[in-house]
Structure formats: structure tokens, C-alpha cells
Amino acid sequence: MSDSGQPVPRLSVVVPCFNHGPFLAEAVESALAQTLAELEVIVVDDGSSDLDTRRILDSFQRERTTVLRQPNRGCSVARNAGIRAARGQYILPLDADDRLCPDYAELAVQALDRDPELGIVYCHAEFFGRKSGPWHLPDFSLPGMLRGNQIFASAVYRRADWERVGGYCEDLLLREDYDFWLSLLELERRVLRLDPCLFQYRKHEKARNSKSRRAKRLQEAEVYHRIRCRHAGLFARHPEVLLDWLHELECQRLSEKEGRLGSRMSRWMRGLGGGA
User: Fold this and answer.
1) Is residue 83 part of a domain?
2) Per residue in 206-251, pLDDT tens?
């Protein structure tokens, strides 16, 4: 029991929301429908500009649910703000347009309770919305994870580990969840994927995007380069992954700017070799 006489939740579901008001109730209801009773939901409005979303958030009232407001600063900042306000021992991030199946939180908490070395618990997943069907995620392995993210954003982890790694990197506007998982893996935490399909990822209608494919590829390459630099020690233990990545850059025949990024990566690799 807390000082207020309310039971302390075992797990906190943290829901950043930016202009996803029409889907928010569905996401929160899926969290409140969990078979794990000792649970709270924290919704963080990340400065939504959509009037409908703002109206929904202004009147949003659910049991065991708190709504926080902040200026628009991105998903990482919103997640960190929600986790700072959370009381649960375990954290489950949930985007405001996705859904949880009822047993997910309970099965994840049971697994984390059983194994103190376990740091990340996720599950099989499926799509809904514009596209439906299984989401075929590869089996987890550390070399595979270093080649690209294998874990969706709504995995369950320990709040204490979030504190140890300093939370989500607030300077990353893309792939912040991938960066965070690598931070937990640097703690030498184990990873478990539950057998049931317990998470549903919404696929939206494709929106028109002013960014060219080349510009998006450049942005992705820059983000991945930053992530690799942030976790240099982890990547240095698997140089074959870096060689594969450089080969991909060559095969894609990147532009001069992308070539400069590859050169920076080569210099970084040589620096790792020189420090060995």
C-alpha cells in the first residue's frame, strides 16, 4: 500500500500521445483490460496540435489512469516523463494507436519475477488496421539485433534498468526504442519472447510524405550511425556486423553525402582496431 492507501501497481503502462486522440481510448482500454490487476496507466500528451485530440484528452477519465501534459518534444521525452511519474516496478510502453492482448502484462511480470537476469520481455505480434496478419519478427540473437531492431517498442522491462541507463535518448527522433534496447543489452540482460501473440500493431493508411526516398534513407543512415557510435563497445564485440553494414552501403551506391557517412564509419572502425 502507498501512503495514500492505494495499492502500489506492479506495472505501469506509459502511453505517449501526439494527435492520436481517435485511437487513445482503444489503447488505454486494452491496458486496463489486462489480467494483471496491480497496474496503472499514464498517458502523456506530447503537445498535441489536433483539436479533436486535445478535446479528448481534456475530458479523458479512466480508472487507474493519469494524464500528463507537456509541450511537443518527441516520443523519447514523453516516455521518460511518463516513466518518471510511474510507480510500477515494471514498465510497458504503449503507443496510443496500438493494443495489448489481456494476458500480456501478467505473463511478462511472471517471467521477470522468476528470473532476475531477465531484462526484456516481448511476445509474438500481429498487425491490424489497414493491414492484418502476423508480424513475422525474427528470433532474437545479439548479432541479429546489432544488424537491426528485432524487438517492438512495447516490450516490458524493469524501471530500475531504465534508471541505470538514463532512460530513452532524447536526442534521437527515430529508432529511440532500438537505442534503448541496446542500452539494456549493455547491462548484459537476457531477452525472452513469450510464445503467445499478445501485442497488436496498428497499420495506418499510407500518408503522403514530402520527403523523398533518398532523404528518408539518408536520415535513417544518420540515425543508425549515431546509435552505433553510442554503443561502440557492443558493436566492437561483433565486427562482422559492421562489415556487413559497410557492404550494404556499398551495394546501395549511396550518394556523395552517404559516402561521407560510410567514410566516417570506416574511420571509426579503424579507431576501434587501434584501441584494441
Assistant:
1) yes
2) 765 556 777 887 888 889 889 999 999 998 888 888 776 666 666 6
φ and ψ at residue 182, rounded to 5 degrees: -65, -35
pLDDT digits (tens, 9 = 90+) for 29-38: 999 999 999 9
- Report the Cα–Cα distance between both ends of the chain, in Å, rounded: 52
CATH number of the domain within which 119 lies: 3.90.550.10
- Whether residue 3 is contained in a domain is answered as no
Query: Which whole-number Å values give the CA distances from 64 to 87, 244, 247, in the listed order?
Result: 12, 47, 50
C-alpha cell at 92: 510497458
Write out the E strands in 101-183.
118-129, 133-135, 156-158
CA 56 to chain CA centroid, Å, is: 25
For the chain, what is the domain count? 2
Residue of 115, 142, 134, 101 lying closest to 241 (CA atoms): 142
CB atoms within 10 A of CB 80: 21
Residue 131 to residue 114: CA distance in whole angstroms? 36
Query: Which segments of 73-148 does DSSP mark as H helices, in order?
Result: 75-85, 104-114, 142-147
Q: Is residue 134 located within the same domain as residue 261?
A: no
**Strands 90-93 and 156-158, sheet pairing:** antiparallel
Instruction: Decide if 19 is inside a domain.
Output: yes
